[in-house]
Structure formats: C-alpha cells, structure tokens
Amino acid sequence: MYDKRDQLSPWAQALLALGIEATSPSDARASDLITNLEATAERTGSSSNWESDTGSWRNPGTPLYTTAVVAYALAQRDPAAPVLIEAVRYLSSNRDAKSLWGSTYESAWVILALTEAMKGFGELQADFTFSASLNGGPIANGDVSGTEIFTPVSASLPLGELSQDSPNALVISRESGLGRLYYRAALLLYRPVESAQPLNNGMGVSRAYYDGSCVDAALRQAQGCPPLSTLQLASPSGPMPTSKLAARLTLTLPNDSYYVTLEDFIPAGTEILNQTLKTSQQGEEATVVQVVYDADNPFARGWGWWYFDEPQIHDDRITWTADYLPAGTYELTYALLPAQAGEFHVLPAHAWQAFFPDVQGTSAGTIFEITP
Q1: Which one, of 48, 89, 44, 93, lies nearest residue 66 by Cα?
Q2: Which terminus of the chain has a lower count of CB atoms within 10 Å, N or C?
Q3: Looking at residue 177, what DSSP letter applies?
C-alpha cells in the first residue's frame, strides 16, 4: 500500500499512516505520509482542507469527510501542525442549520476529528487572558477559562480611526496559559467603482451585459452577441419601455466549496425582471414572461444553475446561494428592464464562502450608459 501511496486519496493515506504506526511506531513511512498530507492541503487565508478525486457508497470522498479523516490522523501524529488548526476551522464552520454535516457518517468522522484535535490542543484546559489594541488604543479584551472558550469577543471601528499618513498597528496580546487564541481581522473599504479591478481570492467572477434582442426568449446567449456598455431605450408602448437587457455572471471555482453566495448589483436605471411570475409585469406581455424551467431548453438560466437556490430579488441586486458547489465553472443569467436614461456606476458582482469570506472573488466595476 505504501508503494502505491500516490494512487491513494488523502483520507486513505491518513488511515494508512495510522495503520503503519499501530504495527510499528518507529516506522518512518508513517511520518512520510503525514508530512506529505501537510504539504498537499488546499489552503486559503484562514482554512485548510483536502479533496478526493473519487468517492463510493462506502466512503463519500467529499471534502468534509476527507478533511475529517486527515485531521483525525494529524491530531494524533502532529497536533502542533499549523495546518491542523486551519482544518479544524474548516470543519467547524461548514455545518448546516442543524449544526450537522452532510450525513451521519460524515458527522461521526468530523466529531472524532474535532475531539482528537481538542485533546491535542489542550483546549479543554484553556486558561489565559487576552487583549487587542489599535494604534495604542484598547479595543477588546477577554478572559478565557472553562466554558468561556466558546464565547467570542468582537469589536469594530470606523475607518476614521485609521491613520491615512502612516502605518496602522493592530496589536493582539495573549498572556501565558494553556489553550489557543483564535482571531480574525477584516478591513472594509469603499472605492470609486470605475477603479475597482477584478479580485480572485479562490474564486473568479466576471459579468457581461447583452442586448435582449440578440438572445432567445430564455436568455441563453446567441452566437455573435457582443457585450454591451451602452443601451438605447426602446420606444415605450406604455408606461414602461419594452427593451430588455440580458446579464450573465460567470463563476469559476478551482476547488469544491460549501455555502457559497453570489450577489450582483444592477445599474440604477434598470429593474430586474422576475421570471418566476406568470403574470404581465414591468411592461412585458403575459405571453412573453417565461416559466423558470423549460424542458426544451434546460440551460436557459445558464450552466450549473441547478446547484443554486432560487435567486432572491431585491430592488438593487440579485442574490444566489448554494450549500455545495463542486469545482468548475457556472453561468447564471437574468433579465433587466431599462427604465431610466443616464450613466450609472455599477458595483462589482461578488462571490464568497459564507464562513470563510476571505475565499472570495469580484468582477470589475462597470459604468453602464442608457441613452434616450
């Protein structure tokens, strides 16, 4: 088995390491397997996980199951490894609304892994104090002992507290004692939309607009439809214009992802056409409004839309969520009705993992013009 280790999935390598160690504690092959697992983790800014190429009905091979088995082995072999702490964060955060994981089998492995990790970390005996300051001013403090290890402490400050002319120092101090201190710091900054460039921190997002007259009734892109940055209002036949704009979002994931949100803001001079309604709306005739699913054209809403929940439509944006997305490329489409002429600054489309927002991506900011 060791000679064929390159053909084994990460969870199989982890179990093989434990098996070798159980029969021969001094066997260097167990250490080699653990070292390889630590080096091959899929790492983000605040988490680590492992993925399997294949699964079976016995072992699902999902990222949660694979990560749990590897963390279970690491916690026994090398509890001080930084990648183990990040794997624990990954497992702890990717739970459903009932605080469970994908299945009872996965949940059992995750609980085993977390239990071993807490034993290795000494978390149940945690006893220390901590504090945080920004540019010398205190902003938070706490005392961790007993059940207090499960009580988070948070603080937020306006941007006005930051210096624009010199570096800003966020100092987090931890006194001596058992246990670990976990923390996260984030900066939220607004900038002119025309200078906002695409961002890819583990997710790629792009957005394009097309003239509705150049796509079919289901909004699938037709050959030869160029992307638009301007659109002319059609002559209104009633209180609202009848021209239509097609928006397409493309989301690219290099790795499997849990609890993903994709949000797109629209030009202020447009309104979203809710195609789930079968009545006339927004100047559209009832016969033109399409039902969401068309058996003759299953990809009308894009590619991979079936992984997402029904979109939430707001006045200024549209939002999709998905509990789980395999690695790949997804396309989501929707319709906009131009309602007001003008030049509009459009915020970037944004995708992120709900529990690991540092895994995110944005499209470029856009200026879209609607002419009379």
Answers
A1: 48
A2: C
A3: S
Residue with tokens 């009905």: 57
Query: For residue 117, what are the contacts with CB-CB under 8 A and spacing of at least 6?
Result: 71, 75, 79, 84, 88
Q: Is the dihedral of CA 22, 23, 25, 29 positive or negative?
A: negative
Cα(283)–Cα(366) distance, rounded to whole angstroms?
26
Q: Which residues contact 274 (CB under 8 A, 6 or more apart)?
A: 281, 313
Nearest C-alpha neighbor of 70 from the set 111, 11, 114, 112: 11
**Separation between Cα atoms, residue 124 and residue 131, nearest integer Å:** 21
Rounded to whole angstroms, the maximal C-alpha distance in the chain is 83
Cβ(68)–Cβ(104) below 8 Å: no
End-to-end CA distance of the chain: 71
Reading the block at residue 314, the tokens are 């707001």
* φ, ψ of residue 363 in degrees (nearest 5): -85, 175
Integer-rounded Cα Rg, in Å, for the chain is 25
What CA–CA distance (Å, rounded) separates 302 from 319?
A: 15
Residues 243 and 282: their CA atoms lie apart, in Å, by 11
Q: Is 135 left (phi over 0), alpha (psi -120 to 50) or beta?
A: left
CA distance 269 to 19: 64
Q: Residue 113: helix, strand or coil by DSSP?
A: helix
Distances 58 to 62, 105, 221, 303, 324 between C-alpha atoms, Å: 12, 9, 41, 30, 20
How confident is the model at residue 147, as a pLDDT?
58
pLDDT tens digits for range 163-210: 888 899 999 999 988 877 877 777 777 788 888 899 999 999 999 998
Amino acid at position 292, single letter: V
**What is the C-alpha separation between 18 and 95, in angstroms, rounded?**
27
pLDDT tens digit sequence for 44-65 = 878 899 988 766 666 677 889 9
DSSP 9-57: -HHHHHHHHHHHHHH-TT-HHHHHHHHHHHHT-EE-SS-EE---S---S
